[in-house]
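B., you asked whether I could sanity-check this one before it goes into the benchmark set. Here's the sequence:
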Amino acid sequence: MKIRQNDKVMIISGKDKSKIGKVVRILKDKNKVLIEGLNKVKKHVKPNPYKQEQGGIKDIESPVEASNVKVVCDACANPTKIGYRYTEDHKKIRFCKKCDENF
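And here's what the prediction gave me:
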C-alpha cells in the first residue's frame, strides 16, 4: 500500500467525496484506511457501569477502502499518484508524479 500514516489524503468517491483529511491508522489486512474526521457513522452503545461509560448514540469514524483515496501532495496541493525511486545511497523514497517533488 502506498499510503502511510500521517499522509494527507482526499476521498475520491462516496458520501465524503473531495474532502481532505489525515490518515490516522492503516488496516493492511482489510486494505482500508482510517481518516481523521471523515466517513462518520452512528453507533448505538449500551451503558457500561464498570468503565463509567454512558449509553447512547456516538459518532465514530469508519474505515475507507484504500482504492477510494488519493494522496495530496504538499508542494502542488493536488491529489496525485505516488511513485518510487532510489537515491544514490540505495534508499527508496516516494515522489509526486505530477510535480516530481519528494515526500
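One thing to flag: DSSP finds no helices and ten strands in the chain. Otherwise nothing jumped out at me.
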